[in-house]
Amino acid sequence: MADSGSTARPSHDARVTAASFRRMKTRGERITMLTAYDYRSALLFDAAGVDGLLVGDSLGMVMHGHETTVPVTLDDVIHHTRPVVRATQRALVVADLPFMSYTTSREQAMTNAARLVQEGGAQAVKLEGGRAVAGTIDALVTAGVPVMGHIGLTPQAILRFGGYRIQGRDKVAAQMLLDDARALEDAGAFGVVLELVAAPLAGRISEVLKIPTIGIGAGEACDGQIQVMHDILGYDLPGSFVPRHAKQFANVGDTILSAVKAYVAGVRAGTFPTNAQSVMMDESVVKALGDPG
Ligand code: KIV
């Protein structure tokens, strides 16, 4: 059929799915992911062409001001997933199962993943852990929920790790991570986040797996990369800590500070608002109201 001004979206704009992640690995296309927690940011990231948006439980730190991801609840993740889903036309939206929301029992994991998908609108879920969660991943995938794994430094276990350190540096730890990665693939995960994994090991895991690895602080050999949006945008107070694995591609914190300082100064000085931001009317109407007293 001839297309005269059709609004059909070109095929490169079709929704990215869990299955597309695997195809992208096969084709050698690097996968881009970023966290997102609100409508406007997700709108921009989707327009910029990011392949996947993660409503990560990092929201506890960057959106709610907690020190770790541990206090984040399932309701928090659902609350932030809805606007991200509403904003996206192309990116795959993955939502995190938070701390202790999938480890108590298989039923708990199924019920909570179903809430992320049904109430939040997530198109996939992510959970942390290796062989210990493989059975849960298998059950979720069998039930029709695409699952992304997450190994290496798993922030929900920060109380056990005691700090954010590179993982898998000695032979035993490296073998364990490789075995965990294989177990996630065998369980049906469509991808696996490698967080703070030494680059050569992340490279080996990426070679061995058929599903894509998505690195954060895991070097360039991963099949894709993910970052926390605030880290790459410099969305923080100037001089704040920047993780070594992040690069600031912008300085949104500086931009916001100077814009808001200019707004405050404008209001205080009476230079904002002006007639340009105000609505006029026939002043005789006001005069006809009589004296203010
Ligand atoms: O919660 C999160 O943002 C994450 C990424 C760091 C991968 O899990």
Q: Summary?
A:
The chain has 293 residues and is an alpha/beta fold. The protein has helices at 18-26, 39-48, 59-62, 74-87, 106-118, 134-142, 158-161, 171-187, 199-208, 229-233, 252-269, 283-287, and strands spanning 31-35, 52-55, 92-96, 124-126, 147-152, 191-195, 213-216, 224-227. The protein is 40% helix and 12% strand.
Secondary-structure blueprint of this entry?
Blueprint: H1 18-26, E1 31-35, H2 39-48, E2 52-55, H3 59-62, H4 74-87, E3 92-96, H5 106-118, E4 124-126, H6 134-142, E5 147-152, H7 158-161, H8 171-187, E6 191-195, H9 199-208, E7 213-216, E8 224-227, H10 229-233, H11 252-269, H12 283-287
Parallel strand pairs: 1-2, 1-8, 2-3, 3-4, 4-5, 5-6, 6-7, 7-8
Helix pairs in contact: 2-4, 5-6, 6-8, 8-9
Residues 35, 54, 56-58, 96, 150, 193, 195, 216, 226, 228 line the site of 3-methyl-2-oxobutanoic acid (KIV).
